[in-house]
Amino acid sequence: METYRPRRSVLYIPASNDKALAKIAQLACDAVIIDLEDAVAPADKIAARAKLAGIFAGHSERRCELVVRINALATEWGADDLLAAAGCEPDGILLPKVDTPRDLLEAGDVLDDNFAPDSVKLWAMIETPKALLNIGAIAELGRDPASRLNCFVAGTNDLVKETGILVTPDRRYLVPWLMQMVLAARAGGIDMLDGVSNDFRDLDAFTQECAEAAAMGFDGKSLIHPAQIEAANRAFAPSAEAVAEALSVKEAFALAENAGKGVIALNGRMVERLHLAQAEKLLAKAAAIGS
Ligand code: COA
Ligand code: MG
């Protein structure tokens, strides 16, 4: 079984915000995305890129994954961003505005040509109508380790902007697309992170959105503010009830009388070996998180 790496809480930090960057070592998030794209104004782009090496030098011991979001390769900054990010050997490089598998393959070729180690993965923003139409083919790259594709991040603000849908508290017009992303990520064997909640002062609404995202099958949520970390860590970890249920399934199949059985009854419910596999996966996840 593949080892589980938690990505429950993934916090964006603008590369231009020194005060926020200084907090990285104290934050309880599973990953940080140092942003060169939308959170950095055009006039600050080059200065922000120049700071990357210093930021990474300050975190030689990585408590959480460190990812860099570069500007799109089609912009004037993208190519140099990619080289600067690769030189820092981050855990991931997040590509915005991915439309097709080719966008990822081209970035992967640049990483290979520059001898970036295999540990440098590619993450992709899913935030354009084209990406949604091509999502199956993009996700399929996840089955080929040479592609480096490892994680999708929903870019809900851009999707809203590009499509003109109405944003409602229950995200009803986004949900069909979000579910399509989850399905594609599972087909490709990669992680899938939900988009950000802009209203970082409303933690009740945020907690509700996290619960829904966990129920929809997301691995975690992208965040914009440290106040959102705790709720995300809780929502995307297995609950105590789910752990207890998984243990009971495991124990039932371990009984001598059930050895070799494909299906058993447990507390009035049918339990199959596929449920055992599911339970073992959940227990491994809980153990990795340490909950
Ligand atoms: N990462 C780390 N620390 C952060 C942070 C972040 N994303 N956002 C805020 N903080 C820190 C602040 O530096 C501040 O620290 P201090 O108490 O030492 O001064 C503290 O948390 C409280 O910040 P607060 O005053 O509540 O927020 P703000 O008004 O300064 O900033 C935002 C609000 C939204 C501008 C800011 O949170 C932000 O830039 N978030 C990320 C945006 C981003 O990257 N967007 C791109 C992807 S959608
Ligand atoms: Mg975006």
Entry keywords:
10 strands; binds magnesium ion; 291 residues; binds coenzyme A; TIM Barrel; two-stranded antiparallel sheet; 12 helices; 8-stranded parallel barrel; globular; alpha/beta
N- and C-termini, Cα separation: 20 Å
Output the strand order for the largest sheet: 1-2-3-4-5-6-7-8
Q: What percentage of amino acids are in beta strands? A: 15-25%
- CATH-defined fold name of the largest domain: TIM Barrel
How would you describe the overall organization of this protein?
There is one protein chain. The chain is of the alpha/beta class. It has two domains: 9-235, TIM Barrel (Alpha-Beta Barrel), CATH 3.20.20.60; 240-290, no CATH class. Helices cover 43% and strands 16% of the residues. The strands form two sheets. The protein has an eight-stranded parallel barrel, surrounded by five helices. α2 packs parallel to α3 (78-87). The longest helix has 17 residues, at 273-289. The radius of gyration is 20 Å and the shape is globular. The two termini are 20 Å apart. Magnesium ion binds at residues 38, 96, 125, 127, 155, 158. Residues 38, 96, 125, 127, 155, 158 line the site of magnesium ion.
